[in-house]
Amino acid sequence: MATPQLRRLPSYYHIRDTQQMVWVLNENSLIAAPLTNNIKPDSSKTIMATPQLRRLPSYYHIRDTQQMVWVLNENSLIAAPLTNNIKPVTIEITECKHAEFYDEGKGNLVYMGIKGKGLCLFCTETQGKPTLQLEAETVMSLYDKDNSEKPFLFYHNKEGSTSVFQSVSYPGWFIANSSTPREPVILTQERGTNNNTNFYLEAED
């Protein structure tokens, strides 16, 4: 079983040479200039960041510890045992390129979608309770936005060989399968009871 390989956030640096010359953007070219009061490393004219490359999402088969997989039922996700007549979805995952909600202790910031369906996992409230829904979006359109899309964000963390996904909008609420087959995939605060919050991810061939 392959271990998911997700992209890390870019690193940011001030750059100068041994003569204290810094890089400055002059229209569409880089020039080197002495560091003076008019040219500051934190200026918008100074290049400080490593390049951010647009990456394709990663694709995974997902199942819980009871071998329940995710199935698309109209515009909802349900969990069902894997049998010959069940067609599980393939999950697409990409990391968020913005660091606004980054928390190293909680895991990587990711967007999650359903491959080939133009649907993404989305957290909202229904009757005052956090719920998991599907919204017409793609992970790459979310990735390309100028700001983080908080309702679509999850912290992806590893617990042994399994993965857990915590809502960024609702801290302490995790994606979960019910132990009862064909029930909706939900958000829950109750881990290790009737809800399974630990998942195996297997990279698609």
TrEMBL record:
- Quick one: where is this thing mainly located? secreted
Q: Where is the signal peptide?
A: none
According to its UniProt record, where is this protein located?
Secreted
Q: Coiled-coil region(s) at which residues?
A: none
Q: Which GO terms describe its biological process?
A: cellular response to lipopolysaccharide; cytokine-mediated signaling pathway; inflammatory response to antigenic stimulus; positive regulation of gene expression; positive regulation of T cell differentiation
Instruction: Report if keyword Secreted is assigned.
Output: yes
What Pfam families does the entry give?
Answer: IL1
Top-level taxon: Eukaryota
Query: Which InterPro entries does the protein's record reference?
Result: IL-1_fam (IPR000975), IL1/FGF (IPR008996)
UniProt keyword terms in alphabetical order = Secreted
Q: Which GO terms describe its cellular component?
A: extracellular space
The record's family statement is: Belongs to the IL-1 family.
What protein name does the entry list? Interleukin-1
Query: From which organism does this entry originate?
Result: Tupaia chinensis
